[in-house]
């Protein structure tokens, strides 16, 4: 199974969360906006080396959203405004659906949504 890693999923792999151990060998498929969030985490938590390793050596594939993807993400966010999703999560979910990937996240608000796997 191929996954789209949201920022929280990448961070959980980096932090060694046992629930994410099965994803450690997977290729990280994500978006540039998620990379920015994870890089910020690395700077804030002094884990720059671990973040660099997670994206090194061709271990990551970046899906860049086009204008239509951004529009769909905004529409998804609006349709689910009570769940208070971040725009980064909405972009990721949109890209995952578009590319036939399972959206991997820690965000409980995605529980029960089609095409998602929520791991706490």
Q: In what order do the strands lie side by side in the largest sheet?
A: 1-4-5
Unreliable segments (pLDDT under 50, ≥5 consecutive)?
A: none
Terminal-residue CA separation: 19 Å
Overall form = globular
Q: Biggest sheet, in brief?
A: 3 strands, parallel
Strand content: 5-15%
Please state the CA-atom Rg, rounded to the nearest Å. Answer: 14 Å
Order of helices and strands: EHEHHEHHEE
Tell me what you see in this structure.
- The chain has 120 residues and is α/β, with parallel strands linked by helices.
- It has one domain: 3-Layer(aba) Sandwich (Rossmann fold).
- The protein is built from five helices and five strands.
- It has a three-stranded parallel β-sheet. Strands 2-3 form a two-stranded parallel sheet.
- Helix 4 crosses helix 5.
- It is globular and about 35 Å long.
- The model has no long low-confidence stretch (mean pLDDT 95).
Task: Record the SSE blueprint.
Layout: E1 3-5, H1 7-15, E2 28-30, H2 32-45, H3 48-54, E3 60-62, H4 67-79, H5 87-98, E4 102-105, E5 116-118
Parallel strand pairs: 1-4, 2-3, 4-5
Which descriptors would you attach to this protein?
120 residues; alpha/beta; Rossmann fold; 3-stranded parallel sheet; two-stranded parallel ribbon; globular
């Amino acid at each position: 199974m191929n996954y789209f890693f949201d920022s929280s999923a990448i961070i959980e792999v980096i932090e060694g969360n046992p629930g994410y151990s099965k994803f450690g060998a997977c290729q990280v498929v994500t978006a540039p906006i998620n990379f920015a969030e994870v890089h910020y985490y690395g700077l804030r938590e002094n884990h720059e080396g671990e973040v660099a390793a997670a994206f090194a050596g061709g271990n990551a594939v970046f899906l860049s959203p086009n204008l239509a993807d951004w529009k769909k993400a905004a529409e998804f966010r609006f349709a689910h405004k009570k769940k208070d999703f971040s725009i980064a999560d909405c972009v990721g979910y949109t890209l995952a659906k578009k590319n036939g990937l399972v959206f991997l996240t820690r965000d409980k608000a995605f529980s029960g949504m089609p095409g998602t796997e929520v791991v706490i």
